[in-house]
């Protein structure tokens, strides 16, 4: 076990820790006028628990992780199914929460990302020649594996989480070496599913308004249109160096509802300025790039797919959250990794860091002995 810790690539761990600590400051700034330090402290507690889980995962041999992959995937499905029972609670129109004793809450869709990454890596790497191109017999089970949690999430409905699962699935299948036709078909299918969810309508009216208000904020001027306009105003008013932590007029005035969750980047833009906000973006981008570097260096197909799945997840979720803060993407309720307040998201993201570390610490394959042919022996 000690050797695995020594081989681990700790750079993503350090970057994630830095983001989490800055996130606590941003959460404090957005909430201290009405909640005191309580939410910032809970953010730090969630970070500490996540760090412990990541350290535990680093010590797990990747072969044990592969053996446990079916159970991890099934645990994710069990969580998604449980919110559709009377145990589930509806928050903001989406039945996606479990309220636990002691005042704790859990969003199973966040932890389902871990289950799908591990499950897909197992399916796409199991019993296959790593140098052979996957055929439909390899790819079709992967898509079926992804379709189950996607369907359960859309029944809540939670379009943002469903898009994350769809994108990480596309990334992992494409990286497995499957034909580009499978990736193209998946992209078309994802776009069609989003259109169908709006047209049926599978989404609640307020969720449809979120998507349509992206094109025309006047459609929901007192709701999501107002929120996005105020977020852009806060980011634009920060200038190069910002107004100073706890000094932003928009943030301290409470003009942006639930700013400490999905719109926490607007706090950074206003109070840390362009330079501070870009520093956070660079750290998030570093996590994505480092995940891809781990994938390139990993010889084991299972570990390589784990790294690609986490990088795809972090990359898309960051892009989507920053886009909706800047008015470039519709609002889908996705938190910004490590920075937004939320226990389930924080734990899932730190488990993702643990998966990256587990893949980077994979023991190198033993080099098999080679015997010269008889006619070349002296």
From TrEMBL:
Pathway: Cell wall biogenesis; peptidoglycan biosynthesis. One of its GO terms (cellular component) is cell division site. Its EC number is 2.4.99.28. It comes from the Bacteria. The keyword Transmembrane helix applies. It is found in: Membrane. Its main location: membrane. The chain crosses the membrane at residues 12-31, 43-64, 71-91, 111-127, 139-155, 161-178, 185-202, 272-293, 305-326, 338-359. Pfam families: FTSW_RODA_SPOVE (PF01098). It is an enzyme of class 2 (transferase). Keywords: Cell cycle, Cell division, Cell shape, Membrane, Transmembrane, Transmembrane helix. GO terms for molecular function: lipid-linked peptidoglycan transporter activity; peptidoglycan glycosyltransferase activity. It is a multi-pass membrane protein. The keyword Transmembrane applies. It catalyses: [GlcNAc-(1->4)-Mur2Ac(oyl-L-Ala-gamma-D-Glu-L-Lys-D-Ala-D-Ala)](n)-di-trans,octa-cis-undecaprenyl diphosphate + beta-D-GlcNAc-(1->4)-Mur2Ac(oyl-L-Ala-gamma-D-Glu-L-Lys-D-Ala-D-Ala)-di-trans,octa-cis-undecaprenyl diphosphate = [GlcNAc-(1->4)-Mur2Ac(oyl-L-Ala-gamma-D-Glu-L-Lys-D-Ala-D-Ala)](n+1)-di-trans,octa-cis-undecaprenyl diphosphate + di-trans,octa-cis-undecaprenyl diphosphate + H(+). One of its GO terms (biological process) is regulation of cell shape. This is peptidoglycan glycosyltransferase.
């Amino acid at each position: 076990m000690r050797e695995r810790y020594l081989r681990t690539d700790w750079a993503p761990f350090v970057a994630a820790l830095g983001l989490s600590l800055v996130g606590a400051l941003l959460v404090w700034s957005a909430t201290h006028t009405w909640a005191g330090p309580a939410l910032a402290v809970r953010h730090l507690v969630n970070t500490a628990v996540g760090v412990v889980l990541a350290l535990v995962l680093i010590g797990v041999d990747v072969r044990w992780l592969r053996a446990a992959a079916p159970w991890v995937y099934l645990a994710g499905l069990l969580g998604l199914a449980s919110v559709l029972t009377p145990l589930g609670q509806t928050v903001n129109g989406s039945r996606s929460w479990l309220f636990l004793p002691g005042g704790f809450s859990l969003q199973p869709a966040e932890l389902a990302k871990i289950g799908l990454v591990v499950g897909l890596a197992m399916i796409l790497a199991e019993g296959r020649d790593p140098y052979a191109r996957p055929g439909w017999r390899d790819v079709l089970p992967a898509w079926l594996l992804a379709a189950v949690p996607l369907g359960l999430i859309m029944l809540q409905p939670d379009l943002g989480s469903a898009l994350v699962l769809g994108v990480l699935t596309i990334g992992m299948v494409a990286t497995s070496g499957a034909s580009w036709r499978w990736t193209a078909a998946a992209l078309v299918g994802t776009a069609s599913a989003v259109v169908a969810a709006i047209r049926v309508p599978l989404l609640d009216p307020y969720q449809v308004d979120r998507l349509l208000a992206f094109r025309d904020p006047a459609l929901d001027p007192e709701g999501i249109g107002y929120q996005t306009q105020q977020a852009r105003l806060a980011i634009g008013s920060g200038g190069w160096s910002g107004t100073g932590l706890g000094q932003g007029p928009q943030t301290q005035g409470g003009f942006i509802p639930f700013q400490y969750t999905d719109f926490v980047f607007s706090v950074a833009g206003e109070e840390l300025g362009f330079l501070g906000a870009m520093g956070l973006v660079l750290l998030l981008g570093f996590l994505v790039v480092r995940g891809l570097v781990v994938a390139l260096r990993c010889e084991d197909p299972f570990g390589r797919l784990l790294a690609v799945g986490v990088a795809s997840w972090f990359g898309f979720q960051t892009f989507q959250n920053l886009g909706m803060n800047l008015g470039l993407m519709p609002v889908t309720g996705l938190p910004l990794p490590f920075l937004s307040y939320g226990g389930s998201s924080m734990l899932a993201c730190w488990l993702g860091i643990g998966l990256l570390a587990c893949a980077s610490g994979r023991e190198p394959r033993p080099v098999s002995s080679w015997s010269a042919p008889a006619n070349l022996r002296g």
